[in-house]
């Protein structure tokens, strides 16, 4: 039973490019959460999704960031026109319905140059 | 709103020393409390949890007790090993209302254990 799979592990983008981060939840998990970890800080909640629905996006920056969790395929966190301040580790976690037992992925480390 | 405050690090100890990492929280209602550990270059792993007042979570020699009267969830280990070197995060979930499922993290405490 594979854990939460995130790819890529490392992503380098130039300022102004787009970054796409993927997260495949554990089998049987229909809830996905994205968190961002800025250098030397704790993790901050970004967005909570269920299949085809955004439940809570209160932690998402208002511009350039979007997330989806389609009926088929992984969840995608998309950052348009990246800036240096977007450099961070982005972690995905999944859980079964109605359960607070999270499983975290290993993260995607985004570097904007 | 919810918040978690951890003691500031980094913490440096010798092998077999006693470890305490303080964690206090602010939350409405009855949150569940967690300690996560992050090894270098890896994601977070759940270390232990407690879901109600006076519960004690324990795992791998680590313990933490949910103290509602002091709103605390301090992490302890009687004898640390070099392999315990990692970053430790205290976190809570307020299971109910709009906060359901959303973890609120402390800022993390870096622990380094020397032989």
Determine the mean pLDDT of chain B.
91
What sort of overall outline of chain B do the alpha carbons produce when their principal axes are compared? Answer: globular
Shape of chain A: globular
Could you tell me how far the N terminus lies from the C terminus of chain A, measured between alpha carbons in angstroms?
A: 36 Å
- Percent helix of chain B, as a range, is under 10%
Name the helix and strand elements of chain B from N-terminus to C-terminus, one letter apiece. Answer: EEEEEEEEEEEE
Name the helicity range of chain A. under 10%
Tell me the β content of chain B.
Answer: over 45%
Major sheet of chain B: 6 strands, mixed
Radius of gyration of chain A: 13 Å
The SS-based structural class of chain A is: mainly beta
Report the uncertain regions of chain A. none
Q: Which oligomeric form is depicted?
A: heterodimer
| Rg measurement of chain B, Å | 14 Å
Chains forming the largest contact: A-B, 23 and 20 residues
Count of separate DSSP helical elements of chain A: 0
Helix-strand string of chain A: EEEEEEEEEEE
Distance between the termini of chain B: 41 Å
Structural class category of chain B:
mainly beta
Q: Can you count the beta strands of chain A?
A: 11
Largest sheet of chain A: 7 strands, mixed
List the main descriptive attributes of the protein structure presented here:
heterodimer; A: 113 residues; mainly beta; seven-stranded mixed sheet; B: 115 residues; 12 strands; 0% helix; globular
